């Protein structure tokens, strides 16, 4: 889910039951990309949440055009009815101690 800074939903992408592949050398990759919401609610995206079962938040991060956890080259302002597409997403974790 992509949301405004005030946690208002802008766009929602549905993930598979087991959405990540890996890990490979500490990196997991989101499977099934690209993912799209073809009828976004609209607003200015500032953060994202990855949830399971619609209620439990597993991962959060920032959204922007550069220097954020997720960067959108087309900008972060979404008009109602727009399509929001995520073309790839990886998470890299440091290796053990």
Notes on the structure:
There is one protein chain. With 97 residues, the protein is mostly beta strands. It has a domain of 55 residues. The strands form four sheets. Strands 2-1-7-8-9 form a five-stranded mixed beta sheet, with no helix packed on it. β1 and β2 form a beta hairpin. The N and C termini lie far apart (32 Å).
Summary tags:
97 residues, mainly beta
Strand count, sense and barrel status of the largest sheet are: 5 strands, mixed
DSSP strand content:
over 45%
Would you tell me the overall average pLDDT?
90
* Low-pLDDT ranges: none
Tell me the strand order in the biggest sheet.
2-1-7-8-9
What is the compact description of this entry?
This protein is 0% helix and 45% strand. It has 97 residues and is mainly beta.
What topology emerges from the helices and strands here?
Elements: E1 2-3, E2 9-11, E3 20-24, E4 27-30, E5 35-37, E6 43-44, E7 47-52, E8 56-64, E9 70-71, E10 77-78, E11 84-86, E12 90-92
Parallel strand pairs: 8-9
Antiparallel strand pairs: 1-2, 1-7, 3-4, 4-12, 5-11, 6-10, 7-8
